[in-house]
Write a structure and sequence with these properties.
Elements: H1 13-28, H2 38-45, H3 49-61, E1 65-68, E2 72-75, E3 80-83, E4 100-107, H4 111-117, E5 125-134, E6 137-146, H5 162-173, E7 180-189, H6 192-198, E8 205-215, E9 218-228, E10 232-235, E11 242-244
Parallel strand pairs: 3-10
Antiparallel strand pairs: 1-2, 3-11, 4-5, 5-6, 6-9, 7-8, 8-9
Helix pairs in contact: 1-3, 2-3
InterPro entries: Bact_HTH_transcr_reg, Chorismate_lyase_/UTRA_dom_sf, Tscrpt_reg_HTH_GntR, UTRA, WH-like_DNA-bd_sf, WH_DNA-bd_sf
Keywords: DNA-binding, Transcription, Transcription regulation
Pfam family, one: UTRA
Length: about 250
C-alpha cells in the first residue's frame, strides 16, 4: 500500500494577523482600553475587514479581547488561573478567600449532590451562592452545598437570609478540622442561570471545578464552581486555591 504526505499549507492570513494584533495588544494597549474601529484597524494593517474580523474573533475566543455591546471591543484582563495544587487546604470563606457571598437558601440538593454528601435525598442542605469578579467583570459563579450536620451551631435568628446568612454558614464551616479536599475538573457549557450571572450566552464554554471538602471522614461540603472558559486557565503546582495572574501570560488554555 502506498503512502501519501500532506502538502505544507501556508498560514492563513487572518492567523498571521492575529499574531500581529496580539503583539500590538501587549505593547500598545492596556486592560479595558477600547480598540480603534474595524475600518481604521483594517487600514493600519493593510487587510480586508473580513480578514480582520476573523482575527478579532479568534482573539476573543482566546480571551484576549472582549466585545461589549454599546462600548466596542476592549482589551480583556489576563486570564485567571485555577490552581489545582498540593498545598495547604482551607475551608471556603477563609481570610484569603476572594469569593463574594451573594445569597444562601435551604433546599433539597440535586440527587448527585445528595449522594456525594451522603444525605437523604429529601434532606435539605444549606446552599451558599458566591461570585468571583476580576477587573470588574464576573468570571465565576459557585454553589456551595453544606449539610446541616457540618454547621450544627448555626442560628437562624442572627442571619435569617441573604448574604448575611451565607457569611454565617461560611463562618460556622471553619470550626471542624479539614482533613483534605479533592478537586475534579471538566469542560461544560453554561446553562441559563450561569450564563446570566457570568454575562455570557447560554451554551458558552465553561470550566466546572467540583471540590469535595472532607472532615471527620465524611464530605462536609461540596463546591461546584463554574468559570468562564475565556477568562480562566488551569495551573498545576504546589499552591492551592485560586490565583489571579496579572502578568503578561496570554496563552490560551
Amino acid at each position: 500500500m502506498g503512502t501519501t504526505q500532506l502538502e505544507s499549507v501556508p498560514e492563513p492570513k487572518y492567523w498571521h494577523l492575529k499574531t500581529v494584533l496580539s503583539q500590538a495588544l501587549d505593547s500598545e494597549f492596556s486592560v479595558g482600553e477600547i480598540l480603534p474601529n474595524e475600518r481604521d484597524l483594517a487600514a493600519r494593517f493593510g487587510v480586508a475587514r473580513a480578514t480582520l474580523r476573523q482575527a478579532l474573533e479568534q482573539l476573543e475566543l482566546e480571551g484576549r479581547l472582549q466585545r461589549r455591546r454599546g462600548v466596542g471591543t476592549t482589551v480583556a484582563p489576563p486570564r485567571m488561573g485555577v490552581s489545582l495544587g498540593t498545598g495547604p487546604h482551607t475551608w471556603p470563606g477563609g481570610p484569603d478567600d476572594a469569593w463574594k457571598p451573594v445569597d444562601c437558601t435551604t433546599a433539597v440538593p440535586p440527587a448527585a449532590v445528595a449522594e456525594a454528601l451522603e444525605t437523604g435525598r429529601d434532606e435539605p442542605v444549606h446552599i451558599v451562592r458566591r461570585s468571583r469578579v476580576s477587573h470588574g467583570r464576573p468570571v465565576a459563579a459557585e454553589l456551595l452545598y453544606v449539610p446541616q450536620f457540618s454547621v450544627p451551631e448555626l442560628s437562624g435568628i442572627d442571619a435569617p437570609s441573604g448574604a448575611a446568612r451565607a457569611r454565617a454558614v461560611l463562618r460556622e464551616l471553619q470550626r471542624p478540622a479539614l482533613e483534605r479536599q479533592e478537586n475534579a475538573v471538566e469542560l461544560g457549557s453554561a446553562g441559563a442561570d450561569d450564563a446570566k450571572e457570568l454575562d455570557r450566552l447560554p451554551g458558552a464554554p465553561v470550566l466546572v471545578v467540583t471540590t469535595r471538602f472532607v472532615a471527620a471522614g465524611r464530605t462536609a461540603a461540596l463546591s461546584v464552581a463554574t468559570y468562564r472558559a475565556d477568562t480562566c486557565r488551569l495551573t498545576f503546582g504546589d499552591a492551592g486555591g485560586v490565583e489571579i495572574h496579572t502578568g503578561p501570560q496570554r496563552k490560551a488554555s
